[in-house]
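Predict the 3D structure for this chain.
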Amino acid sequence: MGILGLSNVDNKGIGRRNILVRPPEPPEEFLMNDPTNAIYIGRTKIFHVPFNWTFQRVTNPHIAVVGITGSGKSYFVKTFLTRASFIWGTNAFIIDWAGEYKDWVKQAGGKVISLAKGAYINLLDLGGMKPNDRVKQIMRTLGILTDIERYPEQRRLTEQAIEKAYVGAKFKMDSKTQIDGLGRALKPPTLRDVQRVLETQLEQGSYEFPAELENAIYRIKQFTREGEDFFARQSTINLEELTKVGLVDLDLSGLPDEVFRGLAGLSMLQFIKEKMREEGWSPTKGLKLIVVLDEAWKIAKDDNSDAVMIVREGRKYQFGLLVASQNPTDISEAIFSNVGTTFILRVKFERYLDYLQSTLNFSDYMRREVSRLGVGQCAVNMAFQTTAAFSETFLIDKIEGEEPMQELFLDFAEATGAEGDADSNVASFERDELKKKLRSYGLSDEQTDIVVEIFMKKNRHIKAGPFVVLLERYGIGRTNITEFLKDLGLEDAVIINVLSAADSLKGQLGDQDITEYVLGG
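Done. Predicted structure below.
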């Protein structure tokens, strides 16, 4: 039995013992907000306090979400949008880079708009703006997505041609009026009209630098060629309705590359921003609209992007921007510095942790906890409206969604000969995020469903070697498989051993069906 005794301890000694320091969680009154006017996320890790998020507690309603592949980002986004709709009647507009959300939106009764599959956006649509303002937006967008800023003369020619196209369509450059003298609606020009202006100028032969003019025409033609004219036709989308029809998914997966996707994403942000400005604040409860940008690094990383501008404008237009990425360095530091809330799911790589810690200024303790988060667990960083005498970064034990989160496990212990804690030899990921990743590698919906079904039949666990062989027999290359394993946080040495185990297994299998092998093992 121990013996109690008294001892003299100076102030510094008491401070080192932290006996009077509050654990890193805000007080209950900052977490337990009115459930009829806030979104339930889950319970805190230390005191198990129910956390109901509301934008009324933070500096603005904008949100950043980061976490590696399979950590539960998509699950969180779907839960958040569903509950915002229930609580506030909030509309949602998803700028869907990889087509990840379209199936869910259809199931939820929302509207899916698939560009390159019958839907078009006229880049020169005004969306209630003055032509002068729209021209500036278009040129800024081209500056972000192309190298036009390196060629000032081509930039000037392009800008002038866009202005002439508007004037030729009877628009007044400094007016929002979009009707002619007889009260008829004016039809906006298109990029084909801009191309014709430049071509006419070249044919006239009066311009002293024809090579610059030819290059400016070539730039425009990239967006007007038959089959790639997704932004050079009159819009099939009613821009006036997009912010008021509930749940909308703008599917960009059919567009040919990042430039086209970026052009669509930035244009929609610009139109929505102007629409919100026009409507202004209303005395209704909650948020009118949440705009989701998921893995849109092309437009979330540039400090001149409208995503950054929207975040900096704060809460005055009663809509929120939600930016999500597996790589936090793909999100501009200006966004992290200005969003009201950041949800940090599992992050493994030291450079990502360095970036987050330096940007959000959380403790070394919190950094260690973030690196150990499981699927669906997260840290939350909030910029409270009032000065906080407590930690603004805290841990959530589990995101509690509308349906149970389905976690799948990849066991690489046998392939590597690793020993020790079983948890250290297993990588885990959320089911729907696995399906998203496999679809991005070219697997069909049917094939991704089969892979998930195999996991479920094996009690949600598959050994890493057979999993690699399974993916290869579906046509996924080693480069993509290696990328996937890295995204799960596996070290290079472990990945090499896993791939070696897969090669050995292929030699043993011959023509045997890998599915039968996995299910029978």
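The longest helix spans residues 258-279.
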